[in-house]
Design a protein that fits this description.
Residues 305-314 have a biased composition (Pro residues). Residues 1-33, 276-343 are annotated as: Disordered. Pfam families: DUF6397. It is built from 14 helices and seven strands. It has helices at 38-45, 49-57, 78-86, 90-97, 103-110, 114-122, 145-154, 165-172, 178-193, 197-205, 211-216, 219-227, 240-246, 256-275; strands spanning 35-36, 76-77, 100-101, 130-133, 139-144, 291-292, 295-296. The strands form three sheets. It has a three-stranded antiparallel sheet with strand order 3-5-4. A hairpin with a 5-residue loop joins strand 4 and strand 5 (139-144). The chain folds into three domains: 35-97; 100-175; 179-281, no CATH class. Helices cover 40% and strands 6% of the residues.
């Protein structure tokens, strides 16, 4: 017996109305701190502190701007850590970009002798990116390996052959341009990261002798300049020997270098005064407690107010007290016994 077609007898399914599809949105950001300290950022990226400092100086790693609080240090946004981990090369690519080398390995990269490398560096043709002290308390200059490869590829400096006569005469004077070229590089990096005219002025002031900015600024301006001055990423304790050797390298030498930076500083101060007064960004400091005779005001005992004469109580011998004063030796008016100093 043939089977009959029952498809027409089965009712068609009806569409059940449902909720409208929600528009697509990006996944939420992972929970965690918005910013990280430089130490935490170095651990998250697996980099050394010197590599993080170099990356920030070269503009490869962003940092936050400070609020001017005393002792505040720049921080690294957490988004920078996620960006680097999500990039094609990851933190390893950043490590390759900030790799540095000394004179021996740098000479090998350029295919020249160490003596030739030292001459080019003293002439300012090879600019160091970092400096440090070795265990013998000697200054060691570090150079970007990527920059040295670029120098060899484009032959922008005389790597071989006899140096031109002007360069030979400059070498004969014993002048060393490495500290000056390093200071120029540091200043350029700080100016690129500065956001206001006062921050740019503070970057230049960091290279000048300490009394120079104080001679041009008012006390309010000087406090504001101190609040926005460039600060180190990491808190490192330096020995007295390291401070004595490295501190002069951060200051311009007397003469043309100081005069050039002094003129630049004066121009930036004029620009800052015209755009924003330091009082708008001044850091509020808690008032200092007043002192009276060497003691804080809160620790000085207040004199007992005078009381009306009281009749003698039971068992009392002697007359009633007058004007609230005791029979003991009276203090001079307005003087507190606790505030006296012994001879």
């Amino acid at each position: 017996m043939p089977f009959s077609d029952l498809s027409s007898a089965v009712p068609a399914p009806r569409a059940v109305p449902g909720p409208d599809a929600a528009p697509w949105s990006a996944p939420p950001e992972p929970a965690g701190p918005v910013t990280l300290s430089a130490e935490a950022a170095a651990r998250a990226l697996g980099l050394r502190q010197s590599e993080v400092e170099t990356a920030v100086g070269l503009g490869l790693l962003a940092t936050t701007r400070g609020t001017g609080r005393p002792g505040e240090r720049p921080k690294v946004p957490a988004g920078e850590i996620r960006r680097l981990h999500g990039s094609l090369d990851g933190p390893d690519g950043l490590r390759a970009q900030v790799a540095t080398t000394g004179a021996r390995d740098g000479a090998a990269l350029l295919g020249i002798t160490e003596e030739r490398f030292a001459k080019l560096a003293r002439l300012g043709l090879l600019v160091p990116v970092r400096c440090r002290l070795n265990r013998y308390h000697c200054v060691v200059w570090r150079y970007l390996a990527e920059e040295l490869r670029t120098v060899r590829r484009h032959q922008v400096v005389p790597l071989t052959g006899q140096l031109p006569a002007p360069l030979r005469r400059l070498l004969a004077t014993g002048d060393d341009a490495r500290p000056r070229s390093w200071r120029r590089r540091v200043l350029s990096q700080r100016l690129d990261r500065a956001g206001t005219a006062w921050e740019r002025a503070a970057a230049v002031a960091a290279l000048l002798p300490r009394p120079h900015p104080a001679a041009l600024l008012t006390p309010d301006e000087l406090r504001h300049l101190e609040a926005v001055r460039p600060r180190a990423l990491f808190a490192r304790a330096r020995s007295r020997t390291a401070e004595r050797v490295l501190e002069p390298l951060t200051r311009a030498l007397p003469g043309p270098e100081t005069e050039r930076y002094a003129g630049q500083f004066a121009g930036l101060v004029d620009e800052a005064r015209a755009t924003a007064h330091p009082a708008q960004h001044a850091v509020r400091r808690p008032p200092r407690p007043a002192r009276l005779c060497g003691r804080p005001a809160g620790s000085v005992r207040r004199p007992t107010p005078n009381r009306p004469p009281q009749p003698p109580g039971p068992g009392s011998t002697g007359p009633a007290r007058k004007d609230g004063r005791s029979r003991a030796r009276q203090n001079p008016a307005g003087q507190d016994r606790s505030s006296r100093s012994s001879a």
